[in-house]
Design the sequence.
């Protein structure tokens, strides 16, 4: 287990594992859903996955919402790449940025989970199909994440062509 932890970057810890643990603990206090009580190895992977989902929601929903509303404005990607080569701290600052976005996502998802819990009281069918809903939402989330990551790879390739 120690070798595995050595290979996990600080970025992954702060953007996946920490939000996953926080989500599990807060969700268990805020709702009747529980993500606690697993043996340590299973819990670590579960929390990492939950954090990954939280991070992807931030990338796919929170970031575009903040861009659309003008709450945040991004630099051009080519400019970001060029500036990162001259100032390595920009990459670190970008990672910190992503951590804040993930934490925003965490709190939005906790509110959505609480809303889902409340809605399922009035509509018992929601409680019976929650696993199907979850799997479909995860499929959509990771399909769009794949598409977004592919676009980043293409942008990175284009930025190095000139």
Sequence:
């Amino acid at each position: 287990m120690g070798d595995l932890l050595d290979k996990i970057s600080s970025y992954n810890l702060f953007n996946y594992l920490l939000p996953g643990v926080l989500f599990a603990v807060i969700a268990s206090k805020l709702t009747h859903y529980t993500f606690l009580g697993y043996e340590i190895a299973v819990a670590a992977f579960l929390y990492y996955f939950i954090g990954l989902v939280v991070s992807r929601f931030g990338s796919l929903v929170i970031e575009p919402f903040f861009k659309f509303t003008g709450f945040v404005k991004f630099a051009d990607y080519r400019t970001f790449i060029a500036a990162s080569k001259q100032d390595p701290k920009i990459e670190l600052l970008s990672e910190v940025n992503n951590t804040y976005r993930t934490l925003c996502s965490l709190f939005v998802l906790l509110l959505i989970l609480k809303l889902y819990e409340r809605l399922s009281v009035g509509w018992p069918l929601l409680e019976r199909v929650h696993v199907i809903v979850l799997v479909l939402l995860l499929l959509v989330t990771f399909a769009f994440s794949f598409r977004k990551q592919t676009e980043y790879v293409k942008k990175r390739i284009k930025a190095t062509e000139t």
Remarks:
- Helices lie at 2-7, 10-30, 40-69, 77-86, 89-122, 124-128, 130-161.
